Amino acid sequence: MPTIRIPTPLRPFTGGATEVAITGATVADAMHDLTAQHPQLQQHLYGADGELRAFVNIFLESEDVRHLQGIATPLPAGARLRIVPSVAGGKRSQRAATQLAAGCC
User: Where are the domains of the chain?
Assistant: First the structure.
């Protein structure tokens, strides 16, 4: 059965669950099942237009589904999805900027 890993900021809306078993043939189906199980997630994952919010990234194993077939991506048996919220802002340290410029990390 496929599962989806819940990031820490969204765990209060899943009763603290770090991972939720889901059903569905596609990523869209799985996300629908997730929000059916935990309705409070709906407003955090989807906009008023019913589309996934731009800052919600969904990975199938290690691949961003945007680079696959989007939410139409088929889910193999035992698939592991992850919701990865975007992180923005802050100031890079000099070390981080140097590593980034050098192609590290």
Answer: 3-101
Give me 44's structure tokens: 């955090």
Two structure tokens written together for 65:
């589904």
pLDDT (tens digit per residue) in 50-86? 998 888 999 999 999 999 999 999 999 999 999 988 7
Task: Scan for tokens 């919701």, then name that residue.
Answer: 83
- The answer to whether the beta carbons of residues 42 and 53 sit under 8 Å apart is no
Name residue 31's amino acid: M
Q: What is the token pair recorded at 43?
A: 């407003």
- Please tell me the CATH code under which domain 3-101 is placed: 3.10.20.30
The pTM assigned to this predicted structure is 0.79
**Per DSSP, which regions of 1-105 are E strands?**
3-5, 19-21, 56-60, 63-64, 80-85
Among residues 51, 25, 49, 20, the alpha carbon closest in space to that of 36 is found at 20
Please, are residues 6 and 85 in contact by the beta-carbon 8 Å criterion?
Answer: no
